[in-house]
Amino acid sequence: MKELESLKNTALPAGHAGFARIKNFLSDDQCAGLIRNYTDDKLYRNTIDMKRYRFGEGQYKYFNYPLPDIIQKIRTELYEPLAVIANDWNEKLAIDIRYPKTHGEFVEICHNHNQLRPTPLILRYGPGGHNTLHQDLYGDIYFPFQVVFMLTQKGVDYEGGEFVLTEQVPRAQSIARVVQADKGDAVVFTTNFRPVSGSRGYYRAKLKHGVSEVLSGQRYAMGIIFHEAR
């Protein structure tokens, strides 16, 4: 994918805010196709009603194996450049874990720890829909980055529904950041924590993410998570 060149040139160094945007990663046709397949139940292993579990309001579905070709390709090919960054972050934080070069090798590690279920998902929000602040960890083994793809356009398909990141700050209140992204854009962000340079070296700053209330219309997004779930 030519979009991978954008990722390889995207700065996510220690000290960055913990996210980066890749413009126009998906085409309009690809976005429309993913939305069109939302009702094809055979593609999914589970459907979650967010309100039932007090995760917010809306619905999301986890894709099942075999993953659709576009999702498998994105998940496999995005992993490699992100693994390089993840290993650099762990080195700065003096964490011994190193991520293998290929996603297949990483999935094998997940399976060896009884994390067997695929985690890519598609999300749908209507008016009043929102997602509370959370982390997508799913088990002891997790990858430090995940990616959300915007499938609809704010200001055209829906209003509200901002993607929000919060970051814990030592001895202070958390920082909240609203990430602006258009239809087809990808947002790479931190799954758990990021390294921040302090007076005594690097420390871990924990991040959570969520979605603010959708005021009108329908908001669709797709999430690519690289680790598996128990």
Describe the structure in your own words.
Helices cover 21% and strands 34% of the residues. It is of the alpha+beta class. The protein has one domain: Jelly Rolls (Sandwich), CATH 2.60.120. The protein has a seven-stranded antiparallel β-sheet with strand order 1-11-7-15-5-4-2. The longest helix has 24 residues, at 69-92. It is globular, with a radius of gyration of 17 Å.
Shape: globular
Class from secondary-structure proportions? alpha+beta
Helix content: 10-25%
Number of domains: 1
How is the biggest beta sheet arranged? 7 strands, antiparallel
Q: What is this structure, in a nutshell?
A:
By secondary structure, the protein is α+β, with helices and mostly antiparallel strands. Helices cover 21% and strands 34% of the residues. It has one domain (3-225): q2cbj1_9rhob like domain (Jelly Rolls), CATH 2.60.120.
